[in-house]
Specification:
Distance between the termini: 23 Å
Order of helices and strands: EHHEHEHHEHHHHHH
Number of strands: 4
Shape: globular
Largest sheet: 4 strands, parallel
Number of domains: 1
Radius of gyration: 18 Å
CATH superfamily: P-loop containing nucleotide triphosphate hydrolases
Oligomer: single chain
Strand content: 5-15%
CATH architecture: 3-Layer(aba) Sandwich
Helix content: 40-55%
Mean pLDDT: 91
CATH topology: Rossmann fold
Number of helices: 11
Amino acid sequence: MLIICNGAFKSGSSWLHAIVVELTKLRKLNIVETPQKYTNDINSPGTITESRLQQFINNEDYIAENYLTKSHFFRESTLRKYYSNDVRILFIERDMRDAIVSHFFHIRNKYRVSLNFSIYYYLLGRYKSYEIMLFNSRCVEYMGKSNFFHFSDLKNNFEETVTDIALAIGITNLTSEELVWLKKETSIEKLRSELRNGNSKYYPSKRKDNWRLFREGKVGEWKNYFSDYQLRDITKIERGAFSFLSKLIYFLVFTLRRIVFNIE
């Protein structure tokens, strides 16, 4: 089985992946290490890049063995393909406004820049919002909602949501003790601790404060940052309203940059 934990950037795919990792440990589902040729970063949980997914499917025996990858796959050519039942694609989505606040802090912490939210929003945030809208709408259009999980559900009803995630990969009958253990092992405090101690592959970096890239993940934090005008703007973007000029800027800043520098 190939398990793909897919989500837009800063929408919870790292948390989803961590949960799946612990679920496979609980039920002793051996996860085979993915050959390095399918990734551009061997220190990342993204063991398969989008451009190499079809190559992996063609060449590896994911029916006999279990593989796991974290991803941000959203090309239409990837999502509209037919996949066998041995490929389980799990999606996680998050309130776009909270995802944008998380991306704001990611930029500040990763690049050590002093930046206020308003400047960030107009330079990057509204274009990242457009990308998140594209990501989620494409995933729903081509894959449906059956394996979609929501960040806020994990925060507010962890046990039930994790039970549903487990069912999506064929794991049943989780006990209350196992659910308590899963919640502890995948908490933000645990993930930060593992990163501090060098036991985690998330956000590989030699910086001593790389653990800061895992934030609290609060639901509704956007209320402390968005102005009324920005709220109206992001609501329009979420509904698909984005001017031609804005789409052009998005293409230049996001899409073209990834093509030129082979970023996946």
